[in-house]
Amino acid sequence: MPINCHLYPCRSDNYGVLVRDEATGQVALIDVPEEMATREAIEATGWTPTHIFITHHHGDHIDGVGGIRSSYDVEVVGNAADKARLPRLTRDVTPGDTVMLGETPFEIIDTPGHTVGHIAYVSRPEKTAFAGDTLFALGCGRLFEGTADQMHASLQTLAALDPETRIYCGHEYTLANARFAVAMDPDSSTLADHARQIEGRRAAGLPTIPTTLKTELAFNPFLRAKDAADFARLRAAKDNF
Ligand code: ZN
Ligand code: FE
Q1: For the residues 6-35, what does the mean pLDDT come to?
Q2: DSSP code for 95
Q3: Which residues pair with 129 in a beta bridge?
Q4: Is 61 a catalytic residue?
Q5: 3-state helix, strand, coil in the chain (%, to 5)
Q6: pLDDT (0 to 100) of residue 82
Q7: C-alpha of 70 from chain center
Q8: Known catalytic residue: 171?
Q9: pLDDT above 90 covers what percent of the chain?
């Protein structure tokens, strides 16, 4: 049986996601950016959280964890290597581990770069990835702690997933990312068309998430970087764009 995902916007430009394993009714929160917005999403769906999957330690991804855990009996999953600066975990995981949400497996993928302890949660059978602040629609996370080499390798790991994989990310940055992508590749009419679709969705107040890996492989300049040096050059150009 499949999973269902409910995406909700919160804070200024964050997204949280509720993921429900339909076979068992187990529900994971992908990060808890803000307690109240997450509570509203829980009410709106009627889904009771059983798990929290933490991608990384930044406040806009963990601030609501304590509040939610005071009301719900949840398994709190996070990277063992980063446990000192995460909320108290009930299940610390290591890249390569698989966490079950009911009948649905999620593989823990090491994705350092934005932070050194960042991980992604990937369900291969469901072709769904929760990439946190590593891969964004048409962009990627800033290098707060890791190196360009690390981020390039993390992005290439995600790029090797099934192209049909749906990618959920932690922020709605797509419009600004699209402008940068177009500036890097001004002659591509297919990219220009894609950027116009994004403008239309944002103008209508609609999310651009999830994207698909296939779309990102076609248009995301950071996934298309030739090597780590090319990636580093692009990331620096975006930081000053
Ligand atoms: Zn972050
Ligand atoms: Fe973030």
Answers
A1: 98
A2: T
A3: 122, 167
A4: yes
A5: 35, 25, 40
A6: 98
A7: 25
A8: yes
A9: 100
> Among 42, 47, 41, which residue's Cα sits nearest to residue 25?
47
- Structure token pair of residue 13: 């430009």
| Distance of CA 60 from the midpoint of ligand 2 (Å) | 5
Q: Quick check: 88 and 94 in contact, CB under 8 A?
A: no
Catalytic residue check, 51:
no
CATH assignment at residue 170? 3.60.15.10
Angle between helices 228-239 and 148-159 (to 10 degrees): 110
57 an active-site residue?
Answer: no
User: Which among 180, 179, 183, 172 is positioned nearest to 208, based on CA atoms?
Assistant: 172
Cis peptide before 207 (omega within 30 of 0): no
Task: Given the residues 21, 60, 63, 110, select the one marked as catalytic.
Answer: 60
Q: pLDDT value at position 1?
A: 73
Give the number of whichever ligand sits closest to the CA of residue 173: 2
Q: How many domains does the chain have?
A: 1
CA dihedral 221, 224, 230, 231 (to 10 degrees): 60
On the CB side of 235, how many CA atoms lie within 13 Å of its CA?
28
User: What residue has token string 């944002």?
Assistant: 202
Please say if the pLDDT value at position 136 is more than 80: yes
133 is in which domain, residue-wise?
Answer: 3-239
Q: For residue 219, report the distance from its CA to the centre of ligand 2, in Å.
A: 22
Q: Whole-structure pTM over 0.90, yes or no?
A: yes
Asked about 6 being catalytic, the answer comes back as no
